[in-house]
């Protein structure tokens, strides 16, 4: 016979059991805490963190690290051009333009691409004498030329000088790197290792260990293009202009924040 006035004994027991399991789970969670895998955004890798724990609760150490590498430049940037003085502005400009065109043609024949040849300055200005009158006009045009063929640069400058004649002007040479990130790869790794070593020294007497990296900030890298002093390498007329890229020291400085575990 079925009792229609209330729940069955079996149903009541089931409800009590279910409620007991929920209560036990809640009590267990309150006692042990819930662990969630949370990311630290762009500032670092994900880390295990208890619920309710903030970044302020995680102990960290901030350390600077540095490294230096000695490398040979693989790119030369030459600033050269033509300059001419004539009685009229047109004559001066026409002469410079012709010499510049001849220079560009010669550079292209030598394998320099258009993308690596840039006009950086074109000017025409009057020449004044002591009484303030104009005694002619001076025109100049400057080209910035980038090349990876450093070994052949001396011969190329000789050819350009011969094609330009007395109007040839060489303003300077600087050296740099085609891909600085590749050059600095080892230095960056060494800088981080240096920071980790320093952090270990600071906590040597503490009951903690260096954990994961939370943030890395690069302060300054590399070096500006190094100018080449032509006066230091005076050449005989029978020889090409001597060009030596030498080597450069590139440095990396980083600030690293490590977790302490």
Give keywords.
single chain; 261 residues; alpha+beta; Translation Initiation Factor IF3; Alpha-Beta Plaits; three-stranded antiparallel sheet; 4 helices; 10 strands; 31% helix; elongated; disordered N terminus
| Mean pLDDT over all positions | 77
Oligomer class = single chain
Name the structural class.
Answer: alpha+beta
> Which parts are unreliable, with pLDDT below 50 for 5 consecutive residues or more?
1-52, 229-239
Kindly identify the CATH topology of the largest domain. Answer: Alpha-Beta Plaits
- Which CATH class of the largest domain is shown? Alpha Beta
What does the main sheet amount to? 5 strands, antiparallel
**CATH homologous superfamily assignment of the largest domain:** Protein of unknown function (DUF541), domain 2
Order of helices and strands: HEEEEHEEHEHEEE
Helical fraction: 25-40%
Name the beta content range: 35-45%
Note the gap between the termini.
66 Å
| Largest sheet strand order | 5-6-4-7-9
Shape, please? Answer: elongated
SS summary, helix count: 4
Compute the number of structural domains: 2
- Write down the Rg: 36 Å
Can you tell me about this structure?
- It contains four helices and ten strands, in the order αββββαββαβαβββ.
- The protein is of the alpha+beta class.
- The protein folds into two domains: 57-72 and 179-260, Protein of unknown function (DUF541), domain 1 (Translation Initiation Factor IF3); 75-176, Protein of unknown function (DUF541), domain 2 (Alpha-Beta Plaits).
- Strand 5 and strand 6 form a beta hairpin.
- Helix 2 runs antiparallel to helix 3 (153-164).
- Mean pLDDT is 77; it is low at 1-52 and 229-239.
């Amino acid at each position: 016979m079925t009792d229609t006035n209330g729940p069955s004994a079996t149903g009541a027991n089931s409800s009590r059991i279910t409620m007991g399991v929920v209560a036990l789970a809640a009590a267990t969670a309150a006692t042990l805490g819930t662990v969630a895998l949370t990311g630290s955004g762009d500032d670092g890798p994900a880390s295990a963190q208890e619920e309710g724990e903030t970044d302020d609760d995680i102990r960290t150490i901030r350390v600077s690290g540095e490294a230096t590498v000695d490398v040979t430049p693989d790119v030369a940037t030459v600033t050269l051009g033509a300059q001419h003085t004539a009685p009229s502005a047109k004559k001066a400009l026409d002469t410079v333009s012709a010499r510049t065109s001849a220079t560009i043609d010669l550079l292209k024949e030598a394998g320099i691409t258009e993308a690596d040849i840039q006009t950086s300055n074109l000017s025409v200005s009057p020449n004044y004498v002591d009484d303030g009158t104009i005694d002619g006009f001076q025109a100049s045009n400057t080209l910035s030329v980038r090349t990876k063929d450093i070994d052949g640069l001396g011969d190329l400058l000789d050819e350009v000088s011969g094609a330009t004649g007395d109007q040839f002007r060489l303003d300077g040479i600087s050296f740099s790197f085609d891909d600085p990130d590749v050059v600095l790869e080892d230095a960056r790794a060494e800088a981080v290792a240096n920071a980790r070593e320093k952090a270990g020294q600071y906590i040597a007497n503490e009951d903690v260990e260096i954990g994961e990296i939370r943030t890395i900030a690069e302060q300054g890298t590399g070096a500006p293009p190094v100018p080449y002093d032509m006066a230091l390498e005076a050449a005989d007329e029978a020889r090409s202009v001597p060009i030596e890229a030498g080597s450069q020291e590139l440095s990396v400085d980083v600030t690293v924040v490590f977790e302490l575990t």
